[in-house]
Structures are given as C-alpha cells and as structure tokens.
Amino acid sequence: MSKKSLNFDDTQNSNYYLSQADNSSGSVKANWQLLAIRALIKENKFSQANVLLSNLPLNLNTEQQKEKLLSEGEIAVKKGKGFDINQFNIENLTPSQLYRYYTIKLGLDMNSKDINAQAHDYLQLEKYVLETEKKQLLNDTWNFFSKLTSNKIRKVLVYENEITLQGWVDLAYAYQNASKVIASQDDDTQEVIEEKSQKKIQLLKQAVNNWATQYPDHPAKQIISVLTGEQALVVDANVKKIALLLPLNGSSRIFGETIRQGYMDANKFFPQEPQQNVIVLDTTSKPIDTLIQQAREQNIELIVGPLLKEDVIKIQELAPTVPVLTLNKVDNTTTTANKMCYFALSPDDEAKDAADHLYSQNKIKPLLLVPNTNLGQRVAKSFAAQWSQLSTNSSQAYVQYFGNTKTLSANMNRNLGIILEGDPILINDTPQSGEILSAEFDAIYVYSSYDELTLIKPMLDMGANKNIGNSSSVTLYSSSKSHVANASDDFNYDMNKTEYAEIPMIVNQKDNINIPSNVQKDYSLMRLYAMGIDAWRLANRFNQLNSNQPNFLDGMTGKLSTSNQCEVTRSLSWQQYIYGEAKPDSKTE
Question: Partners of 12 in the beta sheet?
C-alpha cells in the first residue's frame, strides 16, 4: 500500500475522494474511501460518512483499520456519543494519528467533564500539532484554562516533571486574580469608569509579565498579547480608504441608514483610534459588480458590507481583489482568493450564546420555544449544536414550535395553555437519542418577538399551572428580540425573574452619552447603530481577523471573538427583570 494514497489533503472535498474511489478497486479503492470519510466528517456529513464506513471491505490491512477506527472515534465525539478509546495501541500510531487520537480523547473527556484529563489532553496535542495549527491550539488551550473556576483548577493534578502544565495552572490563577472586576458605583462618571478599566488592564499586564518571567520557555508566551488584551487594542496604523456598502433606499433603508450613522459616529466613542477615509455606496442604486468596480477606481483598500444576504452571496461569488468585511453571514462560507470576513447580528450566534449561558447555570434539560419558520429551525439547530458540544451524553435540547401571534391569541382565548413538552432537536438531520419529553425541563429559552412573548408567558403559566420563571424548578430565558424600549408595565411584572440577552450598548446606555436620541427610542435600531460602531473598529483591526481569538474585542454588540474562517461571533450580556427593572445577572458578569 502506498503511503501517498492515504495522504489527506485539506484542500480537497469529499466529492473529489469519492470520485477517485469510483475509479479504483481493491486496496486502493479502500484508501480513497477512507479519505472520503475523513472529508465527510470535516464537512459534518456524518450520516453519509457512517454509510461509507459500513460499506468498507472486511479485509482492511492494519493501516486501514487504524484509519477506520480513528474516523469512528471522530464521528462519535462530534455526535456526543460514547467510544472505547482503549481500542487503540498508541505505540503504533504516527504523530498525525496521535494528534487525532488525543483530539478524540479530549472530546470524550469533555463529555465526561473530566477536568484533569482534559488538561493533560491539551498538553499531548501540543506535542503532535502541525506548526501551522499551533497558534490555534494554544488559543484553545488557554480558552480551556481561563474558564476554570478556582475549584476546578484544583482538580488538575500536576506531577513533578510537568513544568508546562504547572505553567498553565499558574497562569490561570494569575489571570483570575488580576481580572477581578473593580466594583463600579452608581455615581461613577465616565472618566472614573475609564480609569478603573485602565487600572484593571495594567494589573493584568503586570500579572502576566510576572508569570512570563517565571516561565521564560513556556509555549503560552506566544499568545501573551491575547492574554493581556493588547492584541485586541492593536489597530492598523495607517488611515484606511474604505467603501461602506449599504442599502440606503427601499424597504431596507432604515437598516442601512442606522448602520451608516453608527459607522460614521464611531470616532466619537473611540477618538483614540485612527480615523478612516470613508465613501458610502448605495447597494440599491447599482449592481454589486458595478459598485466593486467603482471602489477599485477610487483605490479603496477595504470594503465594509454589503448588508443584505443576497448581496453578500453575490460579492462572495464575485470574489473581488479588494478585501471585504461583510455585514451578514451566509450558510456556506468558501475560501476566496482575497480575504473575506463576516460580521453579523446573527440569531444563530445568539442561540449559541444562550446555550453557553444555560449550561453555565448548570441546566441539564432545556426546552426551546421558537417560531415555526426557517429562522426558528435555524435557532433551534444552532442552540442544539452548541449544547451537544457542552453537555454530557445524557443531556440534550428539545424544541416546541409555535405559530404566529394570531394563532397564539386564538389559543389563549380558548384557554389553551402551552404544555411543557418537546421533540429532540435534529442536528445535521440526525436525531439525537431520546423521545418526546414532557414536564421535566429545568429551563425554557424563548426566541420570539415582544408581541409573541406577551402571549407565550401567560400560556406557559396556564399550561404548567404555576408561574414559570418564578418557579424554583424552571427558569425562563428570552432573546434580545423580545426586549423593547417601550415595554408595558404588565409585561415587566409578568416577566419578573426572567433572564434575557442584550447587547452591551443597551445595557450600559446611561454611560453612552453620545447615542443619538432617535436611536435610543428603538432598541432594534440601537443594535444596528452599535453594529455600525463595531464594524468601524473591526475595520481598524482587519488584518487580525483570520485567527482564532476568543474575546478579541469588547464591542458594543457583545464580546467579539474571531475564528480562522474569518467569522466574527458574539456573546451577549445577560440581564434579569426584577419587577420591571433590568439588572445584570451576577453569574455571568
């Protein structure tokens, strides 16, 4: 068997390997099939990968058997299922196979919440990671250690010769102690708040630098700038000439105009950052290709936008030579010749953040109430996918779909409450294990509009025969979509103790004196205005966006993180209604 025939090429997709398999036979055909399975796993096509695995010949040689077993383990971890890791003899694995082995083991140890095992897995992965992926692994390792509480850090057993592991543990302690929030007072001025923030940054830098002196050869020194927040503060030095592509006429005019207003006002909020030379182009006035040509003729260095999804798809197809920061995301991002990054106020991101929040509060049986629309299904799948990465095998997410406000109102008039039951959410069109679950949920996440939630809340109370949200056994959570500036007193009273997600600009709006009055009156517009500000700051940091960096930037729309696919994701602030007054959820601040 040729080793070359089992050489996996990341640039090829499953169709390439399947076509090679179709034109081969015998052991060579099996090699191509095994490579196709790896590609299918990478593409999250687990059902197709499983079918191909089951159709492999029985007489696989030793190398092919190892490859098959590794793929089975990778699928099990991706789907949150159990797998016997002891089937491997690690002494017979190559370095690249060992990297896959410890990736599988890490996934299994995450599912079992074995903190000590996970810590050691990350150290093993560092031994076998490719140089091109080392930075991302270091970021992932730090992301793991930085989120451990003091009690969890103590569960990491460090043996005498494990200097690198001891360094990670000491760094986690140092970071935690230096990152403790300096308490704010109600009468703090903007200057006092800024002074406290700067003091916290200096304490953090000092703590990390002291640690670096103690561990001069530690691999985490490569990401010091991420740890101290300096990387997030680094901006591209030169003033950029930027084309801002937005819809400024037609039905989307209000969205485009509000984002434009935020983008142009950004320097009022962050005067210390470089200014930009911005030209605004209306995407409703000319075709996208014409606007790109116009940008080229004016020597534009970066395109920010477009906003509408159909325009993002079009600009992706055109793959302009000018780098692009789009203001929406598309389902399938593809690599283009020039850099294209994606930033959006995505309901999918908000659903993932909700999964993180519920999990952090030790919830184990979440029920989602979402509209019976394509958007509702996307939200449910996004939540469930994130939940499956976080939770143990026995815990999964369920969903119940609701109709429009007319249907909800008619059911309420007939005294039909909402019964707490749901179906397992499909991930990649593959159902998680479990049947319809009823009356056992400890958390309900509602993704709805304000009008829908005003009907859903009393119907939940009616169906459960108790006040959902005030009950000690069931906590109610809602999305930012239902949080509005002009909520009624009845709504605030009914939603007492309900937790909801919101962007930092709205949470901290009393501190932001620069917010225009016309935007303050409408939270949906304020979110778009905040998006314009964050887009301006991301444009100043565009050269850093294509690496995996958690908490890259404290933005107006949330804590922004970046991925090596050049996608910007958000985590939000969580608040709680207390008799109509919203206050921060102390568990997540």
Answer: none
